[in-house]
Amino acid sequence: MTTADLLGKLLQVVMGLAIFAAVVGLLIFFIDKAPKKGRDYWQLAGFLAPAMLFLAIGLVYPAIRTSVLAFQDASGAWSLDNFIWTFTQPAAIRTLINTIIWVLFVPTIATAIGLAYAVFIDRSRGEKYYKVVLFMPIAISFVGAGVIWRFVYEYRSGDREQIGLLNAIVVAFGGEPVQWLQTDPINTFLLIVVMIWIQTGFAMVLLSAAIKGVPTEQIEAAQLDGTNAWQRFMNVTVPGIRGALVVVVTTISIATLKVFDIVRTMTAGNFNTSVIANEMYTQAFRASEIGRGSALALILFVLVLPIVIYNVNVLRKQREIR
Amino acid sequence: MSSVAPADLPVGKDLGSLEQVEEATYGETKTARVKKRLTSRTATIASLVIAILWTIPTFGLFLSSFRPAELIRTTGWWTYFANPGLTLDNYAGVLFSTSSSSPQLGAYIVNSIAIALLGTIIPLVFASMAAYAFAWIRFKWVNWLFIFVFALQIVPLQMALVPLLQIFSTWLRPLQAWLHDVIPIIPEQNYAPVWLAHAMFALPLAIFLLHNFIAEIPADVIEAARVDGATHGQIFFRIVLPLATPALASFAIFQFIWVWNDLLVALIFSGGTQDVAPLTQRLAELVGTRGQDWQLLTASAFISIVIPLIVFFSLQRYFVRGLLAGSTKG
User: Fold this and answer.
1) Could you state, in chain order, the average pLDDT of each consecutive group of 10 residues for chain B (330 residues)?
2) Which of residues 254 through 293 in chain B touch A, CB cutoff 8 A?
3) Single pTM value for the model
4) In chain A, ranges of CATH 1.10.3720.10 domains
5) I want to staple A168 with a disulfide (CB 3.0 to 4.6 A). Which of A162, A181, B203, B257 is the partner?
6) Which CATH number fits domain A82-321: 1.10.3720.10, 3.40.50.300, 2.40.128.20, 3.30.70.580?
7) Which residues cross the membrane (chain A) (predicted)?
């Protein structure tokens, strides 16, 4: 990188900031100078306009357009070919199955481990440090995590010394080294491990906060009734954090459905490891099969739709109470 | 079944001092009793095991990134103590080497910073304006619009990519080309598409979170200002923004880490050159082309991780708070 490049980039950032500040400044200026008649209306419009414009261009229109593209073939004629392809091609079916495997395993295991950990460390000495350790992967990019775990799964042929931790353990116990990421179907599960590694900390932080909200009185009362720790956990703690559990599981499910970077970095979807989000990218942007990519995106949308409806309902109830 | 929305999780405002508050309220004995009951030996061992399992992969990569290339290639990082040797060569190689085959990460670091900076500021400002409107300017249909925006949150990014790219290439590309002609130092391939895409995709969550906070500002304060003749613009800048600073800060950290770590948006909107592409994209590329050169990968991966980790460790408390409020970010 030359100095001129750096200057160019700095200039871009400064210009970007300046243009943005000017736009916001002008907008606020005109909002305040709005005509007396219907001023509230103008002000409302002014405050909402930038966000609504961005949302319309960035999400609403594209979502509609993608839905249309999914039902068209390359020439623009209406057809169901894209969906037929998705549900008949062995490779595409495998992608759907893999996605289902991901969404079954990641949220459940990540939540279970996160919950167990949160309970174990609750009020223990050094709880803060315990939390940071598990939570740290959240700050690491999926790409970075991909590199970290590729190193763990690294394979060396024959009698060379293994440098990947997993194969080193296998060899130490007298086994043969395995090409983990190329062995179907174990490779999908090894990728899932990476996602679990990232998401467990997220589950743990939320559940830990919820556990602290369960009234101590209830737990003590249950204790006086002669319950053991497990009964108290199942009958007092779990019902007390049900709301948080739902949030955690749905959130991780959505993140898992959309997982892209991990697969991209670790196997690029080869060796039968592809998932919908990765396949969508491959079809639309690598193979120029826009229709197929759009169909996959639409399927993804349909999969998350129940979660949207559920969350919207919760939100509506809340706003009615208010 | 009752459900708790993200923002209403029963969290103490300040996670760090919860213990102390507890102690002050209930006295020593209760805490001690609870502690004794919960920290059984098995639990301690189990949590230790989990903690170690979670740290080992990162630690292995970290240690490796300082080992000489030859040692990384031939021996596992756990043999370090039998087989010591530390070097900064890997880092020097990926950062400063000018050979065309080296990763030359310098330019990509600058790109990542530039992208994350405006990719955070733009949605933050627009979202706080919208959140203010939703919270404090009353109209009948505003509630429905708000619910609609919230629902948009879960439209998968994947659905937006193809059409947005088409829009950008029809409208934004000519503008960029023109800008390049006027100010030649600005590359034709510049940050604008990535900034805009990140801003657009972040808005639903940002509006929702900031709204929850801004709506909690006491109505008296806003009413008093209105009676004194303040316009919405003045109320927004003089009252709402200062009061909402904690929420703004926690969302900013959250969004910064999110944008810094993003790969998908970058892959599609950046064009992949040194002019624009962020660190994550370069790293993914290296994995594809130089997947066996572990001395390059380990050092590069650590460079890409280090800034979000610094942000994370120094501002962890705010980050956690943002996460607790924003647990539906997908």
Assistant:
1) 38 44 50 56 87 93 89 85 84 82 85 94 95 84 84 82 91 87 83 94 90 87 88 88 89 91 91 86 89 87 91 82 54
2) 257, 260-264, 267-268, 274-275, 280, 283-284, 287-288, 291
3) 0.86
4) 82-321
5) A162
6) 1.10.3720.10
7) 6-29, 41-64, 100-120, 132-152, 189-211, 241-260, 295-315
